[in-house]
Amino acid sequence: MRIEIPRAQAYIESLASGEALSKRKSRTFAEELGLGNICLSPAEGHLLAFLVRMHECLKFVEIGTLTGLSAQYIIEGMGGKGELWTLEKTDLHAKKAMEAIAEHPSGKNIHVIVGDARFTLESLQVSGPFDGVFIDGNKAAYGDYLMWAEKNVRPGGLIVADNVFLSGAVWGSIEGQSKNFSEKQVAVMQNFNKRLSDPTLYDSVILPTKEGMFFAVKMF
Ligand code: DHB
Ligand code: MG
After folding, report:
1. Looking at ligand 1, which atom is closest to the CA of residue 163?
2. What is the model's pTM?
3. What is the reported pLDDT for 174?
4. Is any ligand 1 atom within 6 A of the Cβ of residue 53?
């Protein structure tokens, strides 16, 4: 669950433009699965697309498709020329994602790959190096995803990660936690954030979205 929406974020969302049918389909599918609250908000989606566009990415990987909403923002950031590989572990989520993505004008440039990312990432290596990766999958595996990204994102490429506040668990205070995360999960995210904050490795910034979104340019 997300932490309380500050007024500024509510205002930003009120200005975000509406979503076309294929995106609304992804959002509705997520809601039907009881997962509407973990989708990117419209303003977060635009932010992701904006940075993908600014960075002129053409080959991108997403870890954690859910029902395909963020994938559509990423492909739009690449202006219809790019190619996105998006990885999803849960069959039903992937099926719903494919259904919504099929209705997007650039849907044919999105490849939904079903399976545990620990294995599917391995098989993706041959298609790399990539211009960027969006990490939004299993929160306990962010360290593994980052290790993969460090090998498979080109120097100067973009690493974006959602949920880097882990619903407030990363700052360690009880009142910040809206659900229980294991000590290991918290440590994984804290280490992930520390590494992306190392200026000898990354030029990076955390944007204070509700869940925290890291944007990092890989300098090596
Ligand atoms: C949750 C939020 C997310 O954005 C996500 O990717 C996974 C889980 C959550 O709030 O539980
Ligand atoms: Mg997320």
Report:
1. 4
2. 0.96
3. 59
4. no
